[in-house]
Amino acid sequence: MGEDPQPSHSFEALVSHVIDIDKFWVQPLYNNEDRKKLAVIESALGSSAKPFTDKTPKADDYVSVKLNERGWKRARLQQDIHHSLAYIKLVDYGSDEQVPESSLYSLPYELGIEVLQEQSMMCALAGVKPIPTRPPQSVNYFRDILMNRKVTVKCYSISPTTSDLLVDIVTPEYPSVRQNILLHQLASMTIVPTAPYTKDPGTIQPKIGEKNAVIVSHISDLTDFYVQYRATEKNISSMMTAMKSMYSANVHSPASMINLGMLCCVQLGSDWFRAEIKQVLSNGYILVILKDFGNVQLVTAKAIYPLEGSLISTPFWAVRCGLNNIAPTTPTVIGNFPRQLTQWFHKYATDTNAYHIAHFIRQADERYYIELQDEQGGGEAKPTTTELLITNKCAKRVADNFPAYTGMQAQLNQMGAYFTAVY
Q: CB of 20 within 8 A of CB of 142?
């Protein structure tokens, strides 16, 4: 059968739902914190979700759903409710369900997709085509060797037409599930499509202890946001102008092959941004992170272009940060800062009249922990963001090794959700 090409991206996952060799779902396991968050979110939905009273949810709306013995799950409506029946997709598992309208509830913001993205991705075995005449038990065979198993997912590309992740699967028994399926003549062989690999130019690396003027470019939480050096503002503007000129000239076509982890250029309106492909969602949209700003966006495959020329070699401008040694005094259900505090921080950090100074104190958890301070004209020192939060009793000081999401961990212990090695 010959050797398969090398995958450009691999990750550990749990196979959560199987329909066929060209349609199954996996839950990535590369972020154990997200797995814990999902368990807490599902536990909290029962007490936080409210019945729909003022409006009826529509197609593509995210909702909470009560599934009797399976508990509470997050879902997305596949179509408008008809005859009091709802067709939904469990976005964290991949399965489709038909449920009564009465089992649908609101999905609170603090438990929603904005806080934790969908935890399942739709996949298809790469380079295989189902045989129409194969016996029905062949699908059961595929399901039996994969369902609820921890596996390694080897990614070759994302289908530009269906947004499926085209993969091979590795288990302890099978070095290649694809080759095993072909060996048992349960599918016919086709070409394995592969996406090109682009070397990551890296990100600007601050030095521990340095103080630098910064712009806060994106905020997810007070312990998870991105900054740009103020000195690079003109560089970023020049690069954005150059990208717009380069890609708007219609000499470039959308990428014919794309993959998870691939660096690319994406079009958002009339602007262009350097980005990394992070996830394929259940509705076919692709989640990308804008590498020079830090925020995430949903795009279609048609908006993704190859990264060209000097854009490949120039380091990314956004640095991931968090406020140093603080935790919320009243954390949300998953342990982070309440939404209103994040909104306050956004207003504070993006105030154009403030001159922000970042003191880079330590590096951990894939980010820099900093003290953030603003100075007005004349050099008058102002309290740091951390001092303002503590003075107003919105946050408390913690040690360097203070575990993230302690509120979440306490809930996990309380409800007896102990994660085994599979997670």
A: yes
> What residues does 155 pair with on adjacent strands?
9, 167
Read off φ and ψ for residue 82, nearest 5 degrees.
-135, 125
Tell me the sheet residues that pair with 362. Answer: 369
List pLDDT tens digits, range 12-33.
Answer: 999 999 999 999 999 998 877 8
**pLDDT at residue 160, rounded to an integer:** 76
Higher pLDDT, 273 or 406: 273
Sole residue written with tokens 């130019």: 201
What pLDDT shows up at residue 103? 94
Name the residue type at position 99. Answer: V
Close Cβ partners of 154 (under 8 Å, ≥ 6 residues apart): 7, 9, 10, 167, 168, 169, 170
The H or E element spanning position 26 is strand 23-28
Q: Pick the closest to residue 324 from 366, 385, 383 (CA basis).
A: 385
Average pLDDT over residues 47-56: 88
What was the pLDDT predicted at 409?
46
User: CA of 221: how far to CAs of 74, 114, 134, 344, in Å?
Assistant: 22, 11, 51, 11
Q: Which of 367, 388, 334 is nearest to 219 (CA)?
A: 367
DSSP letter string, 84-148? TEEEEEETTT--EEEEEGGGEE---GGGSTTTS----EEEEETTEEE-TTS-THHHHHHHHHHTT
CA–CA dist 193, 257 (Å, integer): 8
Determine if residue 250 is left, alpha or beta; phi over 0 gives left, psi from -120 to 50 gives alpha, anything else beta: left
**What's the CA gap between 243 and 273, in Å, rounded?**
8
Q: Greater confidence, 423 or 6? A: 6
